[in-house]
Design a protein that fits this description.
This protein is α/β, with parallel strands linked by helices and 301 residues long. Helix content is 34%, strand content 20%.
């Protein structure tokens, strides 16, 4: 529970705003104060996930405003540093929990201001679901791409006023967030490079998800490194080959031409998620090293 003084401090973060449109104040507080940064119960492994130390870092939760809505986020950065390159970290379908926070800490140790916004905040708390089908139906399927793009813009704006260098912005995302990485690399004027971990490349067009990465390949504004598993049952290699062909066909687009794929032959979906049975240590470590090199090569360092 919050004390009255803590509640006042929270409200003070959004001057003139006593309620938060599109979500309950209680849910927003929980996320902003870090209560829901515990991994979802559905995919947890028996052993402990990787825990990266916060020593030498500044970490925490907060909120930023997007059209009157308070978007909660987690961030991590090297202590005492400014003018930092920025990495947006986009969640899996399970939301912003400890694994995503730990990924931010790893990036912060590499010299980045890493920020992971809760992109489901308007639709619900994925940590409260114990059944995948209900989570997909009641939360994930109701998140519009346009909303996500706007919220990521808000994260970039926040980073720019909190020690981030907006000339050096990258994005990385996992599963659901891998698809979003491709989309944001097509839309954003800020992003210089992206790393998409096993994000879907094709899909049905709906009012909320009108286009998918394959359809936007020729319009990329930033090069993307795609890290995928050869044993991913949900993302066929045929779709990766389709995306490779679409990128290669975009002759006048430097970002498309520079984009690459690495497919780990024996890795399943979510091979980087160290709290899940799908985790594969070697591809995960290699992929993270490649991601850091990709950002450095493309001016995000």
């Amino acid at each position: 529970m919050l004390t009255p003084d803590q509640a006042k401090d929270f409200d003070a973060l959004l001057p003139g705003q006593s309620t938060m449109a599109g979500t309950s104040r209680r849910t927003a507080m929980k996320v902003a104060l870090g209560v829901s940064y515990a991994a979802s119960t559905m995919p947890i492994m028996a052993q402990t996930a990787i825990k990266t130390s916060a020593q030498g870092l500044v970490t925490g939760e907060g909120i930023y405003d997007v059209d009157g809505f308070a978007v909660p986020f987690f961030h991590a950065a090297p202590a005492g540093k400014k003018n930092l390159p920025v990495i947006l970290v986009v969640q899996e379908i399970f939301g912003v929990h400890e694994y995503i926070a730990d990924t931010c800490r790893r990036l912060a140790h590499a010299g980045y201001l890493a920020i992971a916004p809760d992109l489901y905040a308007r639709q619900g708390d994925p940590g409260s679901y114990g059944e995948m089908a209900k989570l997909m139906a009641e939360v994930v399927s109701k998140v519009p791409d346009a909303q996500v793009m706007q919220d990521l813009d808000g994260a970039v704006a926040w980073a720019g006023t909190h020690g981030g260098n907006l000339k050096k912005v990258g994005i990385t995302g996992f599963c659901w967030g891998g698809r979003i990485t491709w989309l944001y690399a097509e839309q954003s004027q800020h992003v210089k490079a992206g790393v998409a971990w096993y994000g879907r490349l094709v899909g049905a067009s709906t009012a909320l998800t009108p286009k998918h990465p394959l359809e936007l390949a020729a319009q990329l504004k930033a090069p993307v490194l795609g890290l995928y598993g050869g044993e991913d049952k949900g993302i066929p290699l045929t779709t990766i080959n389709q995306m490779k062909d679409a990128l290669a066909a975009a002759k006048g687009n430097a970002a498309a031409q520079a984009s690459e794929f690495v497919v780990y032959r024996d890795a399943p979906h979510a091979f980087h998620a160290d709290y899940r049975p799908s985790y594969r240590k070697e591809p995960a470590a290699d992929g993270f090293a490649r991601a850091l090199n990709w950002f450095k090569t493309h001016g995000v360092a």
